[in-house]
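Example for tutorial group B:
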């Protein structure tokens, strides 16, 4: 059982930093074959019960962090664009009662670009959403079919256009390194994507995750994933093209014009405090890690029984916090200032200096005073670099 909210004490000077609030909506119309997110397909959803449950889960987090300020709210999933706009509005309104909103609060909704969901964009904007992140994933019908997506290519493009007319900030996702995708294919797609003029792009290589339908298909020989060297070539092409277009990578897979970065995700990567509500949501707050019940029904049962959906809550020892902060922060192009991190967490933050020197000589890491940065070449080997440094 998690400790009572009052029992938690601040462990660092993080208290003045703004919080990010993540809200997980776990339902999708179908399960994409590459997806290992906490997403579920259900015949029906009791919308009223779900709205009440999210508000109760939020109130629990607010009891210990109330006041704020809140820098961002992020509706993720699953498919949060399937949420009734009244639920989105109720969550935002309740958050505004629990916490002060930062003047430039970012309120993001992930969305799928089929026409039915795009038709709800205006309602989401009216509810207070000011940024949308659209799961476009591909620009061709055959690729969308392979990825198991429920929308057509032209429908997706229309949804992006519609969003650009409604929201201050728009991002969309594309998946590359699809089987059979050549360098020229991806270059043509990325050229089109950049021409759409959004301020943010999330560009992911297709990875075959354990437990997904794609994993089974690869095992059965239904398709062969892209060769890692080819994936690396496409990754470098992606970095070059996005930089040249003024929308460079600020994280391994995320690209933005200056000032258009996802403020919510920057709080994760800079290891700020974030609260997570809804099934499977994680939080890092006041030196504690929270994890909520993953299965929607179990989360609902926990809420009824204990007034929140937390399955596990554990204090994070200082060395674990440093490790987590480095694992997150080294994903960023800005890297991590070790001295500043140590001061913030109230503990010495360091890496294996011998390993850092070796990696620097190989051009994979750059030490700039106390700031450590993984170079673009190093980002391709991030897991191995982290293992060496930590
Ligand atoms: S829509 Fe998104 S969350 Fe839902 S199954 Fe597909 S990839 Fe996963």
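The residue assignment follows.
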């Amino acid at each position: 059982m998690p400790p009572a909210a009052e029992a938690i004490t601040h462990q660092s000077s993080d208290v003045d930093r703004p919080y990010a609030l993540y809200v997980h909506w776990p339902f999708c119309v179908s399960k994409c074959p590459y997806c290992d997110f906490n997403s579920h397909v259900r015949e029906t959803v009791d919308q009223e019960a779900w709205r009440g449950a999210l508000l109760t889960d939020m109130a629990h987090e607010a009891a210990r962090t109330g006041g704020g300020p809140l820098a961002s709210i992020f509706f993720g999933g699953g498919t949060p664009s399937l949420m009734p706009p009244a639920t989105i509005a109720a969550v935002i309104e309740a958050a505004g009662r629990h916490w002060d909103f930062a003047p430039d609060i970012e309120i993001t909704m992930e969305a799928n670009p089929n026409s039915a969901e795009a038709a709800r964009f205006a309602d989401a904007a009216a509810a207070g959403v000011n940024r949308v992140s659209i799961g476009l994933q591909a620009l061709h019908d055959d690729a969308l079919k392979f990825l198991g997506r429920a929308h057509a290519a032209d429908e997706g493009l229309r949804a992006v256009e519609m969003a650009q007319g409604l929201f201050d900030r728009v991002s969309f996702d594309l998946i590359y390194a699809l089987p059979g995708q050549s360098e020229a294919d991806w270059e043509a797609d990325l050229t089109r994507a950049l021409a759409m003029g959004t301020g943010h792009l999330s560009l992911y290589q297709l990875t075959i995750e354990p437990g997904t339908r794609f994993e089974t298909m690869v095992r059965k020989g239904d398709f062969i994933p892209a060769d890692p060297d080819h994936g690396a070539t496409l990754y470098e092409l992606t970095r070059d093209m996005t930089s040249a277009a003024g929308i460079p990578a600020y994280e391994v897979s995320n690209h933005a014009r200056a000032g258009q970065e996802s403020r919510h995700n920057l709080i994760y990567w800079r290891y700020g405090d974030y609260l997570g509500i809804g099934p499977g949501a994680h939080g890092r707050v006041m030196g504690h890690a929270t994890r909520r019940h993953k299965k929607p029904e179990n989360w609902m049962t926990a809420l009824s029984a204990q007034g929140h959906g937390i399955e596990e809550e554990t204090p994070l020892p200082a060395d674990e916090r440093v490790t987590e902060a480095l694992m997150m922060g080294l994903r960023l192009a800005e890297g991590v200032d070790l001295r500043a991190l140590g001061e913030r967490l109230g503990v010495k933050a360091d890496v294996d200096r011998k390993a850092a020197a070796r990696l620097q000589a190989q051009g994979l890491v750059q030490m700039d005073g106390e700031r450590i940065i993984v170079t673009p070449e190093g980002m391709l080997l991030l897991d191995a670099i982290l293992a060496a440094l930590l």
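Residues 5-269 form a domain with the TIM Barrel fold (CATH 3.20.20.70). Compare this with the pattern of hydrophobic and polar residues in the output above.
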